[in-house]
Amino acid sequence: MIGIMAAMHEELNRIVALLENISEEKVARKKVYSGYLNNQKVVVVFSGWGKVAAATTSTMLIERYAIKQLIFTGVAGAIPSHLNIGDIVIGTSFVQHDMDCADVLGIKRFEIPLLSLTEIPSSQSMQQKANNAVQKYLTDDIKTDVKKEELAYLNIETPSIHNGLIASGDQFINSSEKQQELLKALPELLAVEMEGAAVAQVAHEYGLPFIVIRIISDKANEDSHIDFPRFIEKVASHFTAGIIRHMV
Ligand code: SAH
To answer: Which candidate, 144, 194, 140, places its Cα nearest to that of 166?
Structure first.
């Protein structure tokens, strides 16, 4: 069984629409959808927003549905200026940017207390699968799947794929000051969001292979000119469902 967690309802709906033999169950205030995708048994759920929601939801999938792999999808803010809206980030490692024990007991900034870890890597084989799936989506499907005028409205030509570090914290980052501070502290950082590193910690503790795929929705600064709901509904959710279809 593969677990799929989506951070946006629009993405979740499009993934659920791909399922066959679907059944649903309500667990801990969340609707959990079980079914088959490409003849593979999957369980799909909305992750919630923030690290606690992502941690409880992934734990629930592991404990109750005995998932053997976890795929997480959502949107994220870009940190370096060469990343653009519509680009796809595949997380290879994850850090909690708001974890700070302030050197008390010798624990450094970003270090997860008692795990003695700062960055948690995702599964290499799932990174490879995700790269192949994204590549296939961009080559074969994007033109028929997403309206030309929606891509043009967002100035998206060909989205590029980036592999690297993602930082998560319980905060929507929308100031260049905070963005620059994070880039200084974590020079390799590609994107910020609110769930990935929590999923990574749970997966690490349970020994579960996982991957996080994020579509860039904003530049983590003040000028968020785009129509967020329109971007999610008309663009990002299509990317996500298409990528998942190629991955599973
Ligand atoms: N503003 C949106 C809400 C997005 S909420 C709205 O009103 O609908 C948060 C989701 O966006 C989370 O899943 C988070 O991981 C992701 N996200 C996207 N850009 C982000 C950023 N710049 N900082 C933090 N999280 C971000």
So the answer is: 194
